[in-house]
Known about the structure:
CATH superfamily of the largest domain: HUPs
Strand content: 5-15%
Structural class: alpha/beta
Pfam families: HAD_2
InterPro entries: HAD-like_sf (IPR036412), HAD_2 (IPR041492), HAD_sf (IPR023214), LarE (IPR005232), Ni-pincer_cofactor_biosynth (IPR052188), PGP-like_dom2 (IPR023198), Rossmann-like_a/b/a_fold (IPR014729)
GO molecular function, one term: sulfurtransferase activity
Distance between the termini: 18 Å
Helix content: 40-55%
Number of domains: 4
Amino acid sequence: MGEQLVVGFDLDMTLIDTTAGFASTLTLLCDELGVQLPVEELSTRLGPPLDLLLEPHLPAEDIGPAVDRFREIYPDVAVTGTPALPGVAEALAAVRRHDGRLLLVTGKHAPNARLHVEHLGLDVDLVEGGVWGGGKGEVLRRHGAHLYVGDHVHDVEGARAAGVPSVSVLTGGCDAAELRAAGTDVVLDDLTGFPAWLDGWVLDRRLAALEEQLRGHDRLLVAFSGGADSAFLLAAAVRALGADRVGAATAYSDSLPMAERGPAQEFAEQLGVAVLTPRTHEMEREGYRANAGDRCAFCKAELLETLGPLAREQGYDAVATGTNADDVRAGFRPGIAAAADRGAVTPLRDAGLTKEQVRLASRRWGLPTWDKPAAACLSSRVAYGIEITPARLARVERAEADLRRALTEAGHVVRDLRVRDLGQQARVEVDRVLVEAAGEHLGVVREAGFAEAEVDPLGFRSGSMNELLPDPERFR
């Protein structure tokens, strides 16, 4: 499911402002040794190892002992007063948001670097100290880094040595011209701009991975429900292969709302792809009708056992579903395993594309589905253990349509709305801001065929029926 993102960061003047602490420590060192050093000048050139900074100012035989003593003094003088630079917490959190790993690769003495990390609570996985310039490249390669973020030209050198993009911030002693001359790929004023840059970079990288995967197919049939994920996958396949090598298969059954069918076909036809609308018969599967926690497995089995032969007959080499990276992390998804067992490919998931990234890319491409609300099948509205029947699904669809219409006519903008079938009772889930308004229109839900109806005060949440399962693990 995509390669894990690994980002390396420098420490001094990239994550933390060590200017004052360095100067104070160096001043004490001068007093102890009885020497004079250009403390202010050296404090503006942080980045290189201390022995290189001291080399022009002390005899060679004195440098080693001076560095050792500096490191001894440093923790008591410099750690507690050293602040994080602007945007640090957000930058590290941005990497975590992409499920990334964080490396701290610095020229600073490793024990002292760790003291800063502990004092400021910096969320990093690994600290490697005492490395400089091209030496950072070896550490970055060893840990599989994809980026290196620093403030100095020698940080750029480390990124270049590792063969990864260099991101530079202007919070250290090097200006933009120096950094660009050294070969950096990106210059940011500070780390406050890093999260937005990273989001775009990760999305571009995953879109490139998606295109590469899709180009590996000769002809591809997309299982197309009309939702945001499968619509994006269909559009991506057309971009990669051309419309003549892509097909859209929308399975018609009682579980697909009638309102979804027309827009789905129109979207596919506008892309110029062949549209197939086979009938599936999941209702004939006892396990599907029984509606235990593994219902989706029977649904996906029926879908793939219908589309697989159809794909072969039509000359497609694979059937692709719109499963994304978030779906796999969502936990209880028996349908995904059933589809995989029957040979379905999952290009979005394999490229690491999340639901949010699918929507961002869809908007970038101008797809009308970029902000389409989630549209799970009608059977997902029925509480587990209650038998699935065509009449029950029709009742749910009717109740949802009538309630949405009533709220819209009352002047409300409705995004997510579900009528959960609990037997004779309906539980309405709607956008949180519409909970009270929905309570005023429950009559239309009862008129659709429910004896009782209530509004869930928690509002809409995807997968809420799984909360009622006593032991979802047994259906995995």
